[in-house]
Amino acid sequence: MKRIFHGLFLSIIFFPAFLYSQDKPANTNFGLKLSGYVKADFIFDSRQTINLREGHFLLYPDNIKKDKNGKDINAVPNLNFLSIQSRLHGDITGPNVLGATTTGMFEAEFFGHSDADINGFRLRHAIIKLKWKTSELLVGQYWHPMFVTDCFADVVSFNTGAPFQAFTRNPQIRFTQNIWKFKLMAALLEQRDFQSNGPDGGSSKYLRNTAIPDAQLQLQFNLKNEDKGTDFLIGIGGGYKFLKPRLVNEITITPAHYTIDTITWTTIKLIPAVTEKYQLTNKIGSYSAIAFVKLKTKPVTLKAECVYGQNLYDMTMLGGYVVCDSVKDNIEYSPVSTLSAWLDFQTNGKLIQFGVFGGYSKNMGADKVILGSNYSRGPNIAYLIRVSPRIVVNIEKFRVGLEMEYTGAAYGKYDKVAKGVVKDEIELVNNFRGLLAFSFFF
User: Whole-prediction pTM value?
Assistant: First the structure.
């Protein structure tokens, strides 16, 4: 079945190459154009937070942690200055292939792969595009389709609305077909920097070991009038992915122990543990769905998005999956569902722009009673809220952005019997972030 699916997908992809092979003359204008920006961020948080890269990428405030005297250890402010978001972008044009215009793009920054690698130069995007008259093939590492490049939050913060907005880049093969004002997209994806969680921590192997890529479909309708400066976009999408968290279940029959001389009561030797290993073939399937809309006029732009999905850990959102049963050669999993929605409003002035972002995300729990480990982000969070007003000043290639971001995390009691729904002893923990960012584009 997998071979039939993969063959059909590749046939659909390469059909336009023959259909439009005579439509375009050879392109002789090719080369490399470099661009990018240098950015400096000045960040203040009112308390300790759950974040990436020394606080640069904020997710939500850390939970209350009381000391012996009842004082909250995490109620301590934090300040940092960073320039790790500075970026280099390259656009490549080349000769036509199979009647298609060919382009390439790479993008890298100094964000690093982890906190230990902060300041490290890392790859963001690396893609090849073949574009025919009404269709396009993209291969390489690029935004996941659930990060809609024509409809995402224009906040100053590098988190771009996460964890309310899906934020992930994936190696992929993507085909897009344009039909009048409609755009139909199909994609197969693997994981690299943004990975699912599991028994061995974050890793791409849980998806790779299924031998089945993450599959996504998306439909967009777009009405744009450049003369009037208006743009209306609406779309829906969905996807399904499988994970295989474990290949083997190792059960200890007899724990390791020492033999004892009963006369002198001294240790004689260590007897290793006796274990049994069982191959596991179990997978966990999870779906995701998205709906989004953008309305742009000359004075203002309004964007909104809603996501409902399972196992969204690799999207930098709440959720993941849990163990709901375990026997020798069988471990059953259940995905944790998440509901998220956001709204972004911005004025479109050339010099000064005002905007405000609002987001809400809720932990919807698992499908079954939890009997084992929980591989979720924020399993003890009932919901998240965020409001972040901003002002941006643009002067030629220079930009200054000021943003005040409030994020609240409703921490509570994690209940396995209630399928992971957090509903008792809920307390809203708040963080106020002040962000001042300077950018110079080239």
Answer: 0.89
